[in-house]
Amino acid sequence: MHALTLNAVSKSFDEKVAVDNVSFALEPGAFLGLLGRNGAGKSTTLKLITGLLRPTSGNIQVLGHDVVAEPLMVKRKIGVMPEDMALMEMLTGPQYLRFVGRMYGLEDAVIESRQRELFQTLDLEPGPRTVISDYSFGMKKKVALCAALLHGPRVLFLDEPFEGIDPVTSRTIKEILMTLQSRGVTLVLTSHVLEIVEKLCPLIAILDEGRLKGFGPLAELRGTSENLESFFLGLVGGQEKRELSWL
User: Which end of the chain has fewer CB atoms < 10 Å from its terminal CB, N or C?
Assistant: First the structure.
């Protein structure tokens, strides 16, 4: 059974086609880097997979469950760290994780134990009464990651997880992700920092104008290209030199 399957998935907003007939499948334990320029359809694709949007056509399954027909079953098995985070910012970090944990049916003692371990691992030490709205951007990202990991998901979606994160914590997050993959968790990561994707993700998918332009093992896709950046720019364009007229 595949961990994730997209079969001819499309999504349109009026006349705008955001995702255009995308198909691919991931085995359990795969680590996919989902790449594309701004507006390529990455975030829309993630919202379709995680049930935040309904596809205009096509079918999506997560661990054998249809995302549209069995949304609650899918949500129990996945963790999501969206780029916009969408946190409940008038709660403290521990209060927010308690809310998230209870939504997944975890006992309070389990939630508190996991919350302490997550905060310690990610070096997250806000004041006990400090609400999330007063956290720094990087601290909010850490809380969003904690919420995605709290219930032990089998498939994890991360949209720009390293944005605003300090180098020390970035290394910790990379180690966590590699450990999860070694335990059979399937990961999908989007990032505009191609060096991060090149180091972490053995499997690559590239979207451009909503279409899947490339999919497969990084080593095979890259071929004779010097690095992932060279291959990416050659595939989606943007290699020509550009200058500003007044500089």
Answer: C
